[in-house]
Amino acid sequence: MTWWKCSNCGYIFEGDKVPDQCPSCGEKCTFYDVSCYTPECGFCGIDPKIAGTRQEESRF
Ligand SMILES: [Zn+2]
């Protein structure tokens, strides 16, 4: 499973693939893969370094 973060509202959820619409805000957003692949993150499944930052949002 992969953890995804909505670029619009910041909602984080788990799934095999991204849905057509964000489960939280209902928009067709860009979803970032925020899954943690290293045990250093505490095995919560989410990488806090990725999930906690909003600087990767594109501003196109
Ligand atoms: Zn959203």
From TrEMBL:
The GO terms this record gives for MF are: iron ion binding
Query: Which residues are in coiled coils?
Result: none
Q: Where is the Rubredoxin-like domain positioned along the sequence?
A: 1-35
Q: What is this protein called?
A: Rubredoxin-like domain-containing protein
InterPro entries tied to this protein: Rubredoxin-like_dom, RUBY_RBDX
Q: Which Pfam families match?
A: RUBY_RBDX
SUPFAM superfamilies attached to this UniProt entry: Rubredoxin-like (SSF57802)
